[in-house]
């Protein structure tokens, strides 16, 4: 839990999504539970059915109000928005009645609520005396999901892919301490860079023996200097998805292109394996209204059978022109770097689901469940879990379970 990993206080959820009002989440049939915590306990008494974006903002403001602004503070506010399920108070939804796509309309309304929350937090930073010596970092975590109201247009691909539409994140840094304000940084910056950057801003120290993946990028952000980062390893996943047509031959004997991977070095980006859904999707594409000018036909068919791509992202951020055939020497150099990265990787492990984690065995709450004593307890519960799992799967095949709306 966060309070065992460096945080003094914690209020929030543990799962990747859930109901914005009830904080209830079903992972699968029969695996449902409550997911709102304060410290290391379920926050039953703190739950008043308030929309989570508003609730988390008020909690953050309360922390600022009770803390001494002359003492350092690190406030990590991980909003649930904007993520499915698409839920939002009606007063925000009314602003977007002109949007025909209901998912897109709800998404826009949720973003407006989030905008208002960030504004209220900023006003609190000013009111309680933090603002003049503050750095605010705002960042999304991945690209949008077009089928759920998101849009990455004109970038290619979507959430869950290694195309730019899946890996680029919207973000900004706001602070009176910025030397150059109102500018756009085109420097390479990765999420691992925030740790050393914020530690140095807080006048902390970093141990050279830590071998961090991240860099202090404050001068690149604040002054527009060159980033110390020269490359970004987007991903290597040798297990999850394999390209049937990939091979060592396609990777010049350096790399098996069946493996899903992506690497950025300077202006170049290399992809191998199955990068994921690869269309360009304009906003409103999935509108229920059959408006011809809102539908697109940019289906990718020319790259079927491929397992390796090379793009100049600076010149072609939309990944429309594959240059892998024109610049084989660049491909080989990047494959060698990909191989070097892979040699440092910890082996992948996808453990099977353990049904002792079911909230029904833990007070109806999602949370930590394993203890050393579990190894010595009777096996009856495990046997029961396995039989129950089998019955769930049989019932699911018969169509006994319906998706909740």
UniProtKB/TrEMBL annotation:
Keywords (A to Z) from UniProt: Calcium, Glycoprotein, Metal-binding
InterPro entries: Alkaline_phosphatase_core_sf (IPR017850), ARSB (IPR047115), Sulfatase_N (IPR000917)
GO molecular function, one term: sulfuric ester hydrolase activity
Superkingdom, natural source: Eukaryota
Sulfatase N-terminal domain ranges (all copies): 4-200
Pfam families per UniProt: Sulfatase
Cofactors, names only: Ca(2+)
PANTHER family per record: ARYLSULFATASE, ARYLSULFATASE J
Assigned protein family: Belongs to the sulfatase family.
Name this protein carries in UniProt: Arylsulfatase J-like protein
Species annotation: Labeo rohita
Lineage: Eukaryota, Metazoa, Chordata, Craniata, Vertebrata
């Amino acid at each position: 839990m966060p309070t065992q990993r460096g945080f003094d206080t914690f209020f929030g959820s543990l799962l990747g999504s859930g109901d914005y009002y009830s904080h209830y989440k079903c992972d699968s049939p029969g695996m449902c539970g409550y997911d709102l915590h304060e410290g290391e306990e379920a926050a039953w008494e703190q739950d008043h059915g308030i929309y989570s974006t508003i609730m988390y903002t008020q909690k953050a403001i309360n922390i600022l109000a009770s803390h001494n602004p002359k003492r350092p503070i690190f406030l990590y506010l991980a909003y649930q928005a904007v993520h499915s399920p698409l839920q939002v108070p009606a007063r925000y939804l009314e602003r977007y009645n002109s949007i025909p796509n209901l998912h897109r309309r709800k998404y826009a309304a949720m973003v407006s609520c989030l905008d208002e929350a960030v504004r209220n937090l900023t006003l609190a930073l000013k009111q309680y005396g933090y603002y003049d010596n503050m750095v605010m970092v705002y960042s999304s975590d991945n690209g949008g999901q077009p089928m759920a109201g998101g849009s990455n247009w004109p970038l290619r691909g979507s959430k869950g892919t290694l195309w730019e539409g899946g890996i680029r994140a919207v973000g900004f840094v706001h602070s009176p301490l910025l030397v150059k304000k109102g500018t756009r940084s085109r420097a390479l910056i990765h999420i691992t860079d925030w740790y050393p950057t914020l530690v140095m801003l807080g006048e902390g120290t970093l141990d050279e023996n830590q071998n961090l993946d991240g860099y202090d990028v404050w001068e690149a952000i604040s002054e527009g200097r060159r980033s110390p980062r020269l490359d970004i390893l987007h991903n290597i996943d040798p297990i999850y998805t394999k390209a049937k047509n990939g091979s060592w031959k396609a990777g010049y004997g350096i790399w098996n292109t069946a493996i899903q991977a992506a690497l950025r070095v300077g202006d170049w980006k290399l992809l191998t394996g199955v990068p994921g859904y690869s269309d360009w999707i304009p906003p409103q594409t999935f509108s229920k209204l059959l408006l011809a000018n809102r539908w697109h036909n940019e289906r990718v068919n020319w790259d079927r059978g491929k397992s390796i791509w090379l793009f100049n992202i600076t010149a072609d951020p939309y990944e429309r022109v594959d240059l892998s055939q024109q610049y084989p020497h660049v491909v080989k150099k990047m494959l060698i770097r990909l191989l070097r990265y892979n040699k440092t990787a910890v082996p992948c492990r996808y453990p099977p689901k353990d049904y002792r984690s079911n909230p029904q065995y833990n007070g109806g709450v999602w949370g930590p469940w394993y203890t050393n004593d579990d190894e010595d307890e009777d096996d009856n519960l495990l046997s029961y879990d396995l039989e129950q799992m089998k019955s769930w799967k049989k019932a699911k095949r018969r169509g006994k379970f319906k998706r909740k709306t």
